[in-house]
Design brief:
heterodimer; A: alpha+beta; eight-stranded mixed β-sheet; 6 helices; 8 strands; B: mainly alpha; 2 domains; 8 helices; 0% strand
């Protein structure tokens, strides 16, 4: 029975015809008297063929393999068989190799796409839904504090989505092709609000209810005249939000 | 194969019986003896090693009637015959005339038969044979160590097991190739 690497090396040398006559004769006694030893020689033969296919032999070994080992039809058949086995095994290996694992579990992209789609659809539905509107009419006061005119008052939370303000214009109205309205809050911040309509009597603006906090708001109106010049209306409209 | 006389079935049966009364065991012994003899001559550079192995068998068959009382290792007996034949070859300045190589088997046929024969193996053996081929030089050795560990056998036992499976496959492939329709 094969005990160590020396035997293995000896088998290899035997197969390549590199042993001395004496060593070869001794080895043959073992090969003919012990089936296991002979099976190990055959296994070494397989490995030699494998090494030759894998180009793992030294130049000298490769030369002896070609000229000394590969001289029988049986060994040539074994060489062809082993080459085929390696190709089939390679195909099998490729077939069973798992695809590269995604960084995220498989279900995460699917859920993410579903959520995004849900948000988009939800947004579209929300935009298409009619928004509820509350309306108030503000009368111009003499100054930002409202002068003697009581401010229109609202209480939070507002029961609608948008607040539509009808700003009554001082008469006689100045001819206009458009209006610009600014809203100033008590902390001094100013922003332009959306003008949704106007006539000789009113300028209508819409303010999202969610943008209103507690406090006073003053509205400044400017007339954009037909010649595109801008005329500031020296009155304020005051809204109190409680 | 070139023989200067024909081995009859009766003579062959006598030889098998001499090797082992159990017919199957005798056939296995005969096959291994033939492989040993081929290697005996091949390692000495005889390109007609298979014919010379047959010559050794023939020499033994001719004497088998007188060997019934032989008490030694009967496989080892053939080593003696091989050495005797070798001396004859040297004396006669043997010039080998090799049989022409058979035409190579098309790879496509070989692979078809190989896949068919792999399917005929037991599941565990098939997986083992294919796993054994996996990997390049360094990783292949590690892989094989792991296979041996998993099977709870030594690396050497694994080599032998694989060799036997290869033999089994090889024999199956030869049968399969004979069954394939000629192109």
């Amino acid at each position: 029975m094969l005990q160590n690497g020396n035997d293995h090396s000896e088998f290899r040398q035997y197969l390549l015809g590199q042993l001395s006559d004496e060593t070869r004769d001794q080895l043959e006694e073992r090969l003919f008297s012990d089936d296991e030893v002979f099976q190990e020689l055959l296994a070494t033969e397989d490995e030699l063929i494998e090494a030759a296919i894998g180009k793992e032999l030294t130049t000298a070994e490769a030369d002896r393999f070609e000229k000394h080992f590969l001289i029988t039809p049986e060994r040539k058949e074994k060489l062809q068989f082993r080459g085929a086995l390696q190709r089939v095994a390679k195909k099998n290996q490729l077939a069973k190799e798992p695809r590269p694992k995604p960084v995220w579990p498989n279900w995460i992209p699917q859920v993410a796409v579903s959520l995004i789609a849900l948000v988009i659809v939800g947004g579209i539905i929300w935009m298409l839904l009619p928004r509820t509107i509350g309306e108030r009419t503000l009368v111009a006061a003499l100054n930002e504090r409202g002068g003697g005119t009581p401010a229109e008052s609202l209480t939070l939370p507002l029961p609608y989505d948008d607040l539509k303000l009808h700003l009554r214009l001082p008469q006689p109205a100045v001819p206009a092709k458009d209006y610009r309205v600014e809203m100033r809050s008590a902390d001094g911040q100013t922003r332009v609000v959306k003008v949704v309509g106007y006539n000789d009597q009113f300028v209508d603006v819409v303010i999202p209810a969610s943008s209103l906090a507690h406090g006073l708001y003053a509205f400044k109106v400017s007339v954009i005249k037909p010649d595109s010049s801008v005329q500031y209306i020296p009155y304020s409209y005051v809204l109190s939000v409680d | 194969m070139t023989r200067d006389w024909e081995l009859t079935e009766e003579q062959f049966n006598l030889l098998l019986n001499w090797l082992d009364p159990d017919r199957e065991a005798a056939a296995r012994k005969y096959a291994l003896i033939q492989l040993r003899l081929v290697r005996f001559f091949a390692t000495r550079g005889y390109i007609d090693a298979e014919n010379l192995a047959d010559r050794c068998i023939d020499v033994t068959v001719r004497k088998v009637d007188g060997l019934t009382d032989y008490v030694g290792d009967r496989t080892l007996y053939f080593l003696g015959v091989a050495r005797y034949v070798l001396m004859e070859l040297i004396r006669e300045k043997h010039q080998p005339i090799p049989d022409p190589d058979p035409p190579p088997v098309p790879d496509v046929d070989l692979e078809e038969c190989l896949e068919r024969c792999l399917r005929e193996l037991a599941e565990d053996d098939r997986v083992l044979v294919l796993d054994y081929e996996e990997g390049e030089k360094g990783s292949r050795i590690r892989k094989r160590r792991k296979l041996a560990e998993d099977l709870n056998i030594t690396m050497n036992a694994l080599r032998i097991k694989i060799h036997r499976l290869h033999q089994e496959l090889h024999e199956c492939i030869l049968r399969c190739l004979n069954e394939l329709p000629a192109n």
